[in-house]
């Protein structure tokens, strides 16, 4: 099925640009754990090679599925057996780090952690961070507009991108390079390609904004009685810390219990039936190191907080974040499970969580939950299990989860994207005119429907 | 010429929705000072009325020029005598301010200062600010993606917009409402309409992100020997102040001289032949009030700064900003003049300014300059006069100004947009494929070419 297109590509680019299915075995599992038969992987060495290859795919009408670090969570790598995978793993060069103008120019295959390191080496910061930093690629992060815990302070991936280079479906190189923070000369086309999950073009090179490092880092873990206290606390913490607040995370009690159950050593806070908040401040050197602790003591004395731990060392801090990020512990305890990534007005989060609890346990008394997220930017992660039938009931459970999100004016995908998994729910909360415009744009940019067909906004036409 | 379209609109919406040309006299001067014969002004009362009116304009193929507060600087209101103006001045309602979720929902005709006030009333901040705040409208600010001095900290207008409602050229209402910071469900269509100067649709309603207020404000004015010291100072100030640095402005000596020449009372700094920097820090309450002053004293003791003034009161602070913002003084001193708004890598600003000086004075020995801008976000404003011939030589002077901007990888419009004035230079620094994609999008969204035809990206097709 792939013979003619692969031969044409090999003839143009050389034999080693295609990994054969038999050699690709073991590389093609998505993290959702589905086994999929391998398909060939196209690995261009540079933008020009990719342009040629996409031109050939366009003529052959062979669809292409772009892959980044394969760390996506919405089935973006699912294939129908007809597609080629496209990996930019050979295009992994950090081309330049400009410390004066604070711009990194990198190829799309660069791994996030390598960019973090390169920025750090010149005393700068690239502020998007997430658990998959060791494998997620810049191209994948841009195509999914990745978020993470600092989005409410520094923005999502979209907000770091100054300019980019894209190869379109027909194999045309579209140069939208820019290193300026302010550029109002015509339509800002880059935004079309950010968060489009590779359906409108393949991002190949990018200029990213870097920031000054913030050496003065302080972290606290607080236990409060209920969610309404979390809203009050957020206001007070922001009034005190202002711009320096860079993370504001929430965990319901079951999550703290699960992620600390098998921990050795002292826990920062006791296991209790309250809401856990983890927040962090990052400031310049002019910040009095004791200002954070003083602000925390004032909050404690206010009586809003039941208990509080302040990280006294970097090891303490790492330990707190390890509890927040121990998704493995949740998976171990709850599997089989369904994981949801939604956004909600913070004022509705509590009633949402309660509604979900009531409806799901009424239907499946054995239903259990893990609820946590980036409260600072509306983002809630919800894990649900009803025991052995969980996967069988996926559609019913998803319908309940998403219906209430839409009713409360939230969004069914906060930071993970649509991929394949969320396609059945994609139209919820959207007007038909908005969907029609998305389809118009997709058809204009990919008339042969070869870029990730059937994903993100579904089938077109 | 307008009779049939105006009659059709009046028949549908009522007589008072069109201001006749004879009644519009005196309202239609752009700030660039050109006198233009009046044209009728369409003033819908709500989105539905606008949709009906645009539908009628579309059928009649009558072009429409959207106007905001008429404070634009690039000739966006220039007409050919065939268009209708479209004003949303009757759609000026602040529909809601949600203090918990920090979202303002406003109609596009709301004046910026009114939004500032409404946010302040609930203890919140809307961070985009500029001199025209008393007349610029939210719709105009979105359509031009306005910047201002705090863009490097809080972003431009684009970065404040969570969701919006647009009426398309055909009179369709496109509802892209959203109040979530994180929303990754499909293409983020709102970005198409932000900064498009009304050529792709008319923004009618918008959800804007509000921020916590930062009560701890400190301001300093520094005099340094040369621009290379400014780069060093920026690094040191950011290391000290971190996230709290919200403005970093630069003025060359001629600007300080012009804007202080007729000031009574003591000046914050002497008139000298150096570079003037104005910067501001806004912090939460946990910031030690003396931290700013201590950081400034440390800079001074470093020897990097020739002289420095720290605002000791709000009156001092207002005084410093009045010097920075006294554009009137520049206009009085230099007219006739040409004003340019460009962006440049900070590392190239000095050599850019020198090159410009050399080339222009070689050609016109009487050439004089005023150079200032938002150094923190690459944005330089350059005012040029060569005396009485200035307007006659506009194209030659502009060519020199823009050629070097492009050669140094800057941008010909940092924050003012393209409008009509910058159209001849629009293609500089852009690839033909990028321009073609802009035209494809414009044609797809406005097939009859009735929205601001001939502006922003020029004639299509």
UniProtKB/TrEMBL annotation, chains A, B:
Protein name: FAD-binding oxidoreductase
PANTHER family: BLL6224 PROTEIN, D-2-HYDROXYGLUTARATE DEHYDROGENASE, MITOCHONDRIAL
Domain FAD-binding PCMH-type: 34-213
PROSITE patterns membership: FAD_PCMH (PS51387)
Organism listed in the record: Lutimaribacter marinistellae
Keyword Translocase: no
A Pfam short name: FAD_binding_4
This protein's UniProt keywords: FAD, Flavoprotein
Keyword Transcription: no
Entries under InterPro entries matching the protein: FAD-bd_oxidored_4_C, FAD-bd_PCMH, FAD-bd_PCMH-like_sf, FAD-bd_PCMH_sub1, FAD-bd_PCMH_sub2, FAD-linked_Oxase-like_C, FAD-oxidored/transferase_4, Oxid_FAD_bind_N
TM helices/strands, residue ranges: none
Gene3D superfamilies assigned: 3.30.465.10, 3.30.70.2190, 3.30.70.2740, Uridine Diphospho-n-acetylenolpyruvylglucosamine Reductase, domain 2 (3.30.43.10), Vanillyl-alcohol Oxidase, Chain A, domain 4 (1.10.45.10)
Domain of life: Bacteria
